[in-house]
Amino acid sequence: MKFKRIIIPALFAATVGLAACGGNDASGGASPSGSAPADSASSPAASSPAAELSGKIAAGGSSAQQVAQQVWRAGFSQTNGGVTITYDPVGSGDGQKNFVSGAYKFAGSDSAMDDATVAQAKSQCGGDPIEFPVYISPIAVAFHLEGVTSLNLDANTVAKIFAGKITKWNDPAITQLNPGVNLPSTAISPVHRSDSSGTTFNFTDYLSKAAPKSWTKPANTDWPTTKGESAEGTSGVVGAAQGGNGTIAYIDDSGVHGTKLSVAKIKVGSKFVAPTAAGAAAALESSKQISGTPASILTYDLNRTTTDPSEYPIFMASNEIACQSYSDPSTTAIVKAWLTYIISENGQKAAAANAYSAPLPSTVAAKEQAIIDQMG
Is the Cβ–Cβ distance between 322 and 342 less than 8 Å? Predict the structure, then answer.
C-alpha cells in the first residue's frame, strides 16, 4: 500500500509546532503535577485535572476529522494551555501507519485497524491499543452537473456509476429515478480518493453490502479500480469535483458545506434520504458491535442495508486510536484527558456545531469512557 502525505492547510499550520513522539517514547513534556482527569464522559476534561498538564503530542490521520480536530484542540487548550497537540490530516492509512511506527501518539482513522495493524499497535503500545469511534458523519454523494441541483439515486445506480458501467447522466437507470428532471447527455466523471482513505473504505463497504451484484469488490481503503479521476484528501476531491461538469464524488458531508456541489438523495426503503448527522447516528445505533476484540477496542459492523428512512447508510464512525499507557506518565495523562474531552458532551457538541457531525449516542460514549478510565 502506497501512502501519500498532504500539505497541512493554513488553518492547521497556525497551530503550534509538531512534536514527533513515538508510542513508547517520552513526549518531551513535563510530568503533570496533579491527578488524572475525572472519569465522567459528560464533564469537559478541561475542568478535570487538579493541576495543569504540560507536554507536546503529535497526532494525525483522518482528513474527515480535520475540522473536528481543530475545534477539539481549541476547546482543550482553553484549560490545558500547557499542552501542544498537533494533528496532521494525512489520511487514515498514513494515520495508522504513523501510529504503529511511533511517530504519532494517537491517530484518527475512518476505518478500523485490521488484525495485522492491531498486532503492530500492540507491539508499539506494549499492550492492547485503544480504538473507538469519536466522530460520526454522513458521507455525501456529491455532484456538479450544470442545470441540475436535485438528484435521486439508489445503491445499484451509485455502484454502477462508480464502477464505470453507467457513463452518461441521461442513462435510463438515472432518469427513471428522477421523473421530471431534465438530465443531459453529459459524460459522468466519477472522482475518487487517490490516497489510502477511511472514507473510501466506508463508501466501498456501503457499495459491497448494499449493491453486491453491481459492486463485486470488497471494502478497501484504496480505491479498487482505475476508472474515473483521482484526487488526494477530502479537499482534493472537493476541488476536482467542483472544477468539472458532470462530476460525482463521495465526500465527508462536512467537506461539502460551503461549496457549489449538490448532494444526491439515496433510496432507503421506499424513500429518498439526504445525508444528515441524525441519520448517521441512528444507523450507528442500529449497527452491531464487533465481538471477539480486546476490551479496549470498541468497533462496529456498520449497518449499510437498513430500510428505515430515519437512518442514512453511507456514513463513517471515525475512530481514535491510542495506547492504554505510555512510558512517559505525562503522555498518558494528556492522552487520557484528551480522549475524555473529545467524547464528552461539550466536545461532541463543538464538533457537531462546526463539522456537521453527529454527537455520540450516550450508550456508546459511556462504553468509551469506561475504556478511558482504565488508562495508565
Answer: no
Q: What is the pLDDT of residues 234-278, one digit of tens each?
A: 899 999 999 999 999 999 998 999 999 999 999 999 999 999 999
Provide the annotated binding site: 62-64, 92, 110, 197-199
Cell numbers 453507467 label which residue?
Answer: 166
Q: Is 293 exposed, middle or buried (0-12, 13-18, 19+ CB in 10 A)?
A: middle
Angle made by CA atoms 90, 321, 201, in degrees to the nearest 5: 60
Same domain, 82 and 151: no
Report which secondary-structure segment, H or E, holds 346. helix 345-355
Residue 308 forms part of a structural domain: no
Residue pair 137/351 in contact (Cβ under 8 Å)? The answer is no
| Under 8 Å between Cβ of 56 and 29 | yes
> Quick one: 14 and 131 in the same domain?
yes
Q: Which band of pLDDT confidence, cut at 50, 70 and 90, is reported for residue 20?
A: very low
Which residues are annotated binding-site positions for phosphate? 62-64, 92, 110, 197-199
Range of the structural domain that residue 362 is part of: 10-136+283-300+316-373
Residue 100 lies inside a defined structural domain of this protein: yes
Pairing type for strands 247-252 and 300-301 reads: unpaired
